[in-house]
Specification:
With 67 residues, the chain is mostly helical. The protein has one domain (8-55). The chain is 36% helix and 0% strand.
């Protein structure tokens, strides 16, 4: 994935926190991601690890690519 996306291709939303288990973004953030510029994306990306920790979520590792 690109350096400007936290996506790890594990798109599952936690029903309790409304955060993606893979990246920590909300559905509205995911939906707007392509419309955001770097000035919006990068600060949000720095917040995601703490957001996941505060929510008590362990990020799910990306699935290995099949050959």
């Amino acid at each position: 994935m690109s350096k400007e996306t936290p996506c790890v291709a594990v798109c599952m939303i936690d029903p309790r926190t409304k955060l993606c288990f893979g990246c920590g973004r909300t559905l509205p953030e995911i939906a707007r991601w392509h419309a955001m510029d770097s000035a919006e994306r990068l600060p949000l990306m720095t917040l995601l690890p703490a957001r996941m920790t505060e929510a008590g979520l362990e990020p799910i590792a990306p699935s290995p690519k099949r050959s």
